[in-house]
Amino acid sequence: MNKLLAEEIYYDMVLGRQFELAAKEHYMAGDIAGFLHLDIGQEGFSVAAMKAFEKGDVFTTYREHVMAIARGMEPKAVMAELFGKEEGVSRGRGGSMHLFEPALFFYGGDAIVGGQIPNAVGCAYARKFQGSEDGVMVVFGDGATNGGAFFESLNIASAQKLPLLFVCENNRYAIGTEITRVAPFERQAKKAEPYMVTMEVDGMDAVTVYEAVREAQTLIQQGHGPIFLEAMTCRYEGHSMSDPDIYRSKEELNICKGKDAIEQMEARLRSKYGLGDEAISVMRERAEAAVDDAVAFAASAQEPAVETLADNVFVERRG
Amino acid sequence: MNKLLAEEIYYDMVLGRQFELAAKEHYMAGDIAGFLHLDIGQEGFSVAAMKAFEKGDVFTTYREHVMAIARGMEPKAVMAELFGKEEGVSRGRGGSMHLFEPALFFYGGDAIVGGQIPNAVGCAYARKFQGSEDGVMVVFGDGATNGGAFFESLNIASAQKLPLLFVCENNRYAIGTEITRVAPFERQAKKAEPYMVTMEVDGMDAVTVYEAVREAQTLIQQGHGPIFLEAMTCRYEGHSMSDPDIYRSKEELNICKGKDAIEQMEARLRSKYGLGDEAISVMRERAEAAVDDAVAFAASAQEPAVETLADNVFVERRG
Amino acid sequence: MLYREALNRAIDEVMAIDETVVVLGEDVGRYGGSYRVTEGLVAKYGEARLIDTPIAELSIVGNAIGMAMAGLRPVAEIMTANFALLAFDQIINHMPKYRYMSAGKITLPMVVRFPQGVSRQLAAQHSESYEQMLCAVPGLRVLAAGDVNYAYHALKAAMLSDDPVVFIEHELLYTKKGEVDFDAEVDPFKARVVKAGDDITIVSYLKMVDDVMAAVPEIEKKLGKQCEVIDLCSLNPVDYDTLEASVKKTGSIVVVEEDHKTGGYGAQIVSWAAEKMFYSLDEPPLRIAGEDVPIPYNRTLELAAIPTPESIAARIVAWAEGNGA
Amino acid sequence: MLYREALNRAIDEVMAIDETVVVLGEDVGRYGGSYRVTEGLVAKYGEARLIDTPIAELSIVGNAIGMAMAGLRPVAEIMTANFALLAFDQIINHMPKYRYMSAGKITLPMVVRFPQGVSRQLAAQHSESYEQMLCAVPGLRVLAAGDVNYAYHALKAAMLSDDPVVFIEHELLYTKKGEVDFDAEVDPFKARVVKAGDDITIVSYLKMVDDVMAAVPEIEKKLGKQCEVIDLCSLNPVDYDTLEASVKKTGSIVVVEEDHKTGGYGAQIVSWAAEKMFYSLDEPPLRIAGEDVPIPYNRTLELAAIPTPESIAARIVAWAEGNGA
Ligand SMILES: Cc1ncc(C[n+]2csc(CCOP(=O)(O)OP(=O)(O)O)c2C)c(N)n1
Ligand SMILES: Cc1ncc(C[n+]2csc(CCOP(=O)(O)OP(=O)(O)O)c2C)c(N)n1
Ligand SMILES: [Mg+2]
Ligand SMILES: [Mg+2]
User: Residue B159 above 60 pLDDT?
Assistant: First the structure.
């Protein structure tokens, strides 16, 4: 990884963290409502995966702000969406869980656990059919690996040798349920073994994630067929803003925080790429400024007009 | 296997074959309608599995006449059901695909591919909860192993260590679709490997099936948790009476027929248990007579009264 | 030509002109479809465009959605409506919502073909009708083909539309014969006046249109009145203009559907009439529908569970004569 | 006590007297339920009776059915109605049909708890109402708890019933306060006259009952008429006797529901009134329902998509004054 890319990943991670902290603050202030799922702690995976899977289509879940921004969405447009504003990426219709930008080959944003996986399979079929080589990446949590949609997708992708990268972001919890209580083992890659090659990485280490995803995409581009990648991660916050998060111990959380992806990356920037305090500060300040801008933009953006309520139900209005 | 049991299995296989041939004839004569899925060719599995899983609960599919009879249902009551009569096991409401007898711990009879598997999982949970040891057997086809219900069930049964025997009757086709065209491999036991112990048997050999199911149930009774058993079988007829069956070659079918389970069992009765032509004929004639009786009974049984149309929608009528 | 041939022809024609059209479902390829609707197409267009899927309805619709996102125009076949329940998450949570939630950034030009209804003794798990559920979902168009000519034109229109369409077929109609006017311009969203008449408006769709038509001679003879029979064709949106004109003329409305009366789709039409046409109605509307029971296997019971030409005629005569419904 | 506490108490009481009752669902055990309905129960009854399931709704309902077959009395919780679409095969193809198809040999004493409705800005995939679908299925009882006292009694009754029941809760009601009369005998299938009145019958259920009640003072003041407000409580079967008595008295009927107007459940009630109460109606019935759009995230749009006390009052006043609906 060259220095520029390392800096970029670091910057987007810091930006993501700052963005989430601001979102949290504005949720508590009442500017944002509904379900808000913060990605704090998981930025190492979210940013590196998006950077590594540069070309190709991406599908993900409701815990998506950091991925959306790393993919290229404007923090302003994302924050405005959280604020429910007309200038939001989904014009205030979707909210936190529904960010889409086909121009960036980013397809959300699904609030149904596992629901996006069959969509990603179909997209991968289409890309193969169209002769495009970059493939599709679908990201989901450990909780999604117990649902039928996930398994049907493994089977179809394998039978059809589709250019699809399955990525399980295993943070060990589905809301309050620890994965080992509802699945027979902790690592879900095992479920994919009958169907495809599997890879396991430390999701708290952005560089490892980046390299693994690059490697997987390269294989896919070479016609290898589907691959399953599992990244062990950890969310520092509750599942969503309404989760009291009393089912995990402080120690467990502290162990996670000790491997913080941003801190690891910062250390690497210093040691490997020779960045000093100032260079780091500049990046941090730039990220903070971007988030401040985003909040200011969102706060002053327009409310959608009530007359536009029925926009985009259909392409063609009728009846 | 002692002689008595071998004879019993042989008899039930012959009875099953005769029953199916009679059902086919009466379907063509218009006495039976709807979907009729014949088990001809698969009797080796159907009978032996039911005999082996003597105690415990059984769930199966729409291709179930032979299993139902081997389990202890009266051929008369089954045939009357196919004829849609009031004396049918489901009073003419269910037809071929919906035979139930909780007194025999036989729960159908599901016309939704894979739909019975989660029900069997729940039953297994209940039996464990109730402290009963015999476990549950759920039978399904190769086609069902591509659906979400199947996978969710593997996962749950494994996570909960349920006393459940999964049995895939792999006849290599789901209607006209060969299993290898929609799954990445031919043997579906592979899908269960991450979750539980798997066994593979020749489903055309009743003795092997019997022994495997007995072994599996014994393990389950000892608290082993779920087991997956795959039996390779072959249906000689089309998927149902409406299937022209033009997607398979004659050669393929002839290879199957060369391993006919009834013939194999008959040979064994002669060689291992010393039965002669007469003993065999007596059994065959007894089976034929039972089927003739069943048809005569069904033909002369009552049509359900129209006034009973709404019986059993609910336990308690209201509104 | 047969209804299934009309559907086949529609798919064939659109596939010929648009290479982004793909068909997916169980046995739609080599087998030609369990009702032979896609017969012969795999030979013409290959297995990459006629995709035999595993028995995984959630994926059939879910994959079709992803294909549409990527720029294809998929036609997904559900073998029988009951199995579509396994795909309801994709049909209801996804297919009609992506466009709205993304403020129009995602468009899903796709069709789900949906064979349904009480066929012949297929019993409770193979005999249902789900139009009442599908029409309750904003973002879905729901067409119901009760006629051969309409089947051809409407399926083509559905395949060419940029909105997601559920295209309902009735399993007993596949071998129905009819003429197709290939040059006609058919608006798939317009109701079809099957027979004009001045006295009684009878609204129906799918196979019940035929049963109503079979009942009409008896009704007209017994009552000495003329029936106007309307095939709704588009169940969502409904062509209320055509209904309004008819109700204004006849002062009455009867809705006939195969589905169970409680919860059945016909309530929508009667409720519209009560709200909007109250002062045009000379007598109470009448809903004729199936009984509130799962569909039994036995043929006598099965027929007792749904309207038949005889029961339709008897009910309408009794109602018109003021003997209640 | 709070609505969620009333539900908790009902479950607790039945679990205490019947050891065959088990509760299953996502986070129902250690977490206490995402709306805290099962809080504290795992400590009392253990993890074998409060079963934390994976995110696999098809299995949650499918397993509950198998448990019921084996003699348990399961209460399955679906976290939010939208996710139940993944279980519709079990809810519709299995739960209501096993008994009928087996001619009564199989009985399924089970409850599916079903939190639904437009909450606060949860957007299109978390804000729906499916009573119109559930009530279209013969073999299911559908109860809708709009009231704390009813919630307690009806959930107990549902758990004690031998038929499968879908028990609908509204997500905004969990923190609603109310009195529970523990000694009362409540028939869960009887509608509740929330407020008597001679002039206008307003029928509603779930949260809309509260919104109607909030609108009533304004309506009565503006029109100088008395409203009779009825909470349906049981959506299938419907207590038509109570409705009939009210409509006969007032000569009118208004149905208010949160769901989309097209396909919404209220059409059933209006259609019943049109068919059966036509000669008692002095004016056209009125259906007030949500707009035909997926539910948007933005709060202003969200409120514009569903009835509110203000819009209910305005619509009813306009209608009564003959200014259309
Ligand atoms: C089908 C479905 N069931 C239940 C839910 C409620 N729910 C939302 S997120 C969640 C947990 C998901 O856990 P996981 O997949 O591990 O992702 P994470 O939140 O940890 O990123 C649940 C149960 C849902 N949204 N969709
Ligand atoms: C959910 C569902 N989808 C489709 C069907 C239609 N269908 C009935 S049997 C069948 C093939 C099943 O094949 P398999 O599981 O291998 O069983 P087999 O018939 O070979 O015994 C299909 C597709 C169905 N009944 N249920
Ligand atoms: Mg997780
Ligand atoms: Mg098979």
Answer: yes
Chain mean pLDDT for chain A: 97
Tell me the residue type at D63. Answer: N
- Does residue C230 sit in helix, strand or coil? strand
Q: Round to whole Å and give the CA distance between C22 and A283.
A: 48
Instruction: Name the pairing type of β-strands D111-116 and C21-25.
Output: unpaired
> CA-based diameter of chain B, in Å?
65
Residue B274's DSSP bridge partners are: none
Q: Is the pLDDT of residue A319 over 80?
A: no
Q: How many CB atoms lie within 10 A of CB B277?
A: 8
Domain of A233, CATH number, reads 3.40.50.970
In a domain, A230, yes or no: yes
Cβ of D90 under 8 Å from any chain A Cβ?
no
Whole-complex ipTM: 0.98
Residue D250, both tokens: 């007032």
C66 has a chain A CB within 8 A of its CB: yes
Residue D80 half-sphere exposure toward CB, CA atoms < 13 A: 20
- Please indicate whether, in this complex, the C-beta atoms of B159 and A152 are within 8 angstroms of each other: no
Quote the pLDDT of residue B33: 98
Return the pLDDT at B287. Answer: 98
Q: Tell me: the pLDDT tens digits for D111-125?
A: 999 999 999 999 999
Amino acid letter at C253? I
In this structure, which residue's CA is closest to atom 12 in ligand 2? B174
- Set D94, D126, D153, D170: catalytic member: D126
Boundaries of domain holding B70: 3-299
pLDDT at C323 > cutoff 80: no
pLDDT at residue C322, rounded to an integer: 87
* Cα B113 to middle of ligand 2, angstroms: 5
The dihedral built from the CA positions of residue A66, A68, A71 and A76, taken in this order, carries a sign that is negative
Query: Tokens 């991968």 identify what position?
Result: A124
Chain B positions contacting chain A at CB under 8 Å are: 146-152, 155-156, 158-159, 181-185, 190-191, 193-195
Interchain CB contact of C187 with A (< 8 Å): no
* Listed residue (C230, C251, C226) closest to C240, CA to CA: C230
Residue of B nearest to C126 (CA): B111
Do the two domains D3-170 and D192-322 of this chain adopt the same fold?
yes
Q: Look at domain D192-322 and name its CATH class.
A: alpha beta
Computed from CA positions of residues D78, D82, D84, D87, in that sequence, does the dihedral angle turn out positive or negative? negative
Domain count, chain B: 1
Q: Inspect the interface and report whether the beta carbons of C85 and D82 lie closer than 8 Å.
A: no
Contact criterion met (CB < 8 Å) for D31 and A146: no
- Domain definitions of chain C by residue range: 3-170, 192-322
**Partner chains of B (3+ C-beta pairs under 8 Å):** A, C, D
Dist CA C111 CA C89 (whole Å): 16
From the list B112, D108, C106, the residue with the least C-alpha distance to A116 is C106
CA C50 to ligand 4 center in whole angstroms:
21
pLDDT tens, residue by residue, B109-122: 999 999 999 999 99
Above 80 in pLDDT, residue B157? Answer: yes
Domain membership of residue B316 (yes or no) is no
C57: annotated active-site residue: yes
Does residue B314 lie within any of the structural domains? Answer: no
- pLDDT at position A316 over 90: no
Catalytic residue selected from C126, C153, C170, C260: C126
Q: What percent of chain D has pLDDT over 70?
A: 99
**Subunit contact D62:B315, Cβ cutoff 8 A:** no
Q: Could you tell me whether strands D227-231 and D192-195 are parallel, antiparallel, or unpaired per DSSP bridges?
A: antiparallel
Looking at the domain assignment, is residue A313 inside a domain? Answer: no
Query: pTM for this one?
Result: 0.98
CATH number for D3-170: choose from 2.60.40.3550, 3.40.50.970, 1.10.600.10, 2.120.10.30: 3.40.50.970
Tens digits of residue pLDDT in D63-114: 999 999 999 999 999 999 999 999 999 999 999 999 999 999 999 999 999 9
